[in-house]
Write a structure and sequence with these properties.
The complex is a heterodimer of chains A (116) and B (232). Chain A is an all-alpha fold and 116 residues long. Helix content of chain A is 77%, strand content 0%. Chain A is elongated, with a radius of gyration of 18 Å. In chain A, 6% of the residues are buried. Chain B has 232 residues and is of the alpha+beta class. A 5-stranded mixed β-sheet of chain B has the order 2-1-5-3-4, covered by helices on one side. Chain B has a two-stranded antiparallel sheet with strand order 6-7. Chain B is elongated and about 60 Å long. Chain B starts with a strand and ends with a helix. Classes of the chains: A mainly alpha (116), B alpha+beta (232). Chain A binds chain B through residues 1, 4-7, 9-11, 74-75, 78-80, 83, and chain B through 156, 159-160, 163, 192-200, 225, 228-229, 232.
């Protein structure tokens, strides 16, 4: 508990919120503008969607979603769970987010085997 | 007029219960305050417990929850309250008896923000001068009378009264942080930078709504966060 920052979490929650607010409309715009034809496979379509520039933006969005999720649920845990067990639940939640990250990275590597 | 008052005597009762009192309407005038009516109730039942002192909204000792909102009974005109009037102790803190609550945690949080000016050593040859503009910044933050109406209306304070400083203490902290004469500005901000002390505030504005002195603790906390962003 003592290692958790108040101000840093506050700043990152806002930075990530602003970024995601801008990113998601851009993501939908990008999807709308990537043509889908019957002959194109899904993985090929994904590869045409995720240009190097858009991939970088998406990766940043992924990192910031994790940051936003960490701060958000961390606050809920601190607010509502009995403080004797808060550290345990925070560690468990941190572990869960790490597993989610590994899972997503594996998925990315699986979809883009040639580029990764 | 009917008043339903929450009663609790720890020596006799396991849980609080409600008791209804009837007051003769002829005794109620247009400018009668709720505290006056409570005195009439006490004539009927001297065992009804509530705090009061100055009876003019200065001491802050008669805070109570009236019809779901925290008020100071001495400056709440009875004519502004809808019937039946339901009176409970300020929520979120332990009840000592009837409407009297134990405010130790509230005072502890206030004490923890060092609510006093920390300035250069006293020099009898020199005053700690402040410009009118610097002094004007303190308006709206020094008038707090520590009645507890704000903190006891705050859900974040209800959940963690031992960790979250609460609106009253944060308003006091803000008062000294923005004071041009205080030299512990950064230390104070560092002390407040914890996930539990300041950043539990979600700005739902219950505190501002409840403050009987018309202060705005929520805005003060928001300004406190902005100062932390700039100065830490």
């Amino acid at each position: 508990m003592m290692k958790l920052s108040g101000l840093k979490a506050y700043i990152w929650q806002r930075i990530s919120a602003v970024y995601l607010l801008l990113f998601f409309p851009y993501l939908f715009w990008q999807i709308q503008n990537t043509p889908i034809t019957m002959s194109v496979e899904f993985s090929s379509w994904l590869q045409s969607l995720f240009t190097p520039w858009f991939s970088a933006l998406s990766f940043m969005a992924l990192v910031l979603i994790m940051t936003h999720a960490w701060v958000g649920l961390r606050d809920v845990i601190i607010d509502y769970l009995p403080k004797e067990r808060v550290n345990f639940w925070l560690n468990l939640y941190g572990l869960f987010l790490i597993v989610v990250c590994i899972d997503l990275l594996t998925l990315i590597i699986w979809i883009f085997p040639t580029t990764s | 007029m009917k008043l339903t008052i929450s009663r609790y005597n720890p020596e006799k009762d396991k849980v609080p219960y409600d008791e209804t009192f009837e007051i003769d309407d002829a005794l109620i005038k247009h400018d009668t305050m709720l505290l006056d009516v409570l005195h009439l109730v006490r004539e009927q039942d001297p065992s009804v417990g509530f705090r009061f002192s100055c009876q003019e909204g200065v001491c802050g000792s008669d805070g109570m929850n009236v019809n779901g909102k925290n008020h100071l009974s001495c400056i709440t005109p009875i004519s502004t309250l809808s019937q039946p009037i339901i009176i409970k102790p300020l929520p979120g803190l332990p009840i000592i008896k009837d409407l009297i609550i134990d405010m130790s945690l509230f005072y502890q949080q206030y004490q923890d923000v060092d609510p006093f000016l920390q300035t250069e050593p006293l020099d009898h040859e020199k005053e700690h001068l402040q410009s009118p503009e610097e002094r004007a910044k303190l308006d709206g933050s020094y008038e707090c009378i520590l009645c507890g109406c704000c903190s006891t209306s705050c859900p974040s304070f209800w959940w963690n009264p031992d960790q979250f400083a609460g609106p009253a203490a944060l308003l006091a902290a803000s008062r000294f942080i923005i004071d041009s004469r205080d030299i512990k500005h950064i230390d104070r901000l560092k002390d407040l930078d914890s996930p539990t002390k300041t950043f539990r505030c979600r700005h739902i504005q219950n505190c501002t709504d409840a403050c009987p002195k018309g202060l705005n603790p929520s805005r003060a906390i928001q300004e406190l966060k902005s100062i932390m962003l700039k100065d830490l």
